[in-house]
Design a protein that fits this description.
mainly alpha
Length: 194
């Protein structure tokens, strides 16, 4: 059984070129995304402490995302890049969150599925970056991240299936996935993950 859906819109070669042309700026954004991903996993623990079946997985995911942040930060240090003083609003994630339903149960499902789609997009983009990079160390790093993010895309759907009917999960995942395709295709090109 597949625990994620293929993205409805592929990232463009223009996006890849934009990233490679200003890779230092991409690293700053990537570091911010890893920090936010770790926080997002822990926010599930804080908001849904009664969902005890998935708390260990959420903690593991948060720790892994924090480790990714550490690795990106080490790359930044080698290149003499400082972390930004603030994390700007991610219009991509904001649009996806704004599309979530508001009821407590429905929002729980939507946020899990949103996390799956965001991680799946991250996997797709990390693969594109890995393929475009020439530096062997960076190429390996982004290839490893691609594998990890793809797994995270599946973890969140698997979590949703512990609490919700399979048809309901995949119907809603399809809707969120299609919405995400519309959002990503309208974003301006910049050296950022989203």
């Amino acid at each position: 059984m597949q625990f994620r859906l293929d993205l409805t819109v592929a990232s463009s070669q223009s996006w890849v070129e934009t990233v490679i042309e200003d890779f230092d700026e991409f690293l700053k954004d990537h570091a911010n995304c890893e920090r936010k991903a770790s926080s997002m996993a822990m926010s599930f623990v804080a908001k849904y402490p009664d969902r005890v079946d998935i708390i260990p997985e959420l903690i593991d995911t948060a720790v892994e995302e924090l480790e990714h942040f550490r690795q990106v930060y080490e790359l930044m240090e080698k290149r003499g890049i400082q972390l930004p003083h603030s994390i700007g609003q991610d219009l991509y994630v904001k649009a996806l969150v704004d599309n979530c339903r508001s009821g407590r149960i429905e929002r729980f499902m939507d946020r899990l599925l949103l996390a799956s789609v965001v991680e799946t997009r991250g996997a797709e983009r990390f693969k594109l970056v890995a393929d475009a990079l020439e530096d062997p160390e960076l190429k390996k790093f982004y290839k490893d991240l691609w594998v990890s993010e793809a797994r995270h895309g599946e973890i969140f759907v698997h979590m949703a299936l512990r609490y919700f009917d399979e048809k309901d999960v995949y119907d809603r995942l399809k809707e969120i996935n299609e919405f995400e395709g519309n959002v990503i295709s309208q974003l301006p090109l910049k050296p950022a993950l989203h």
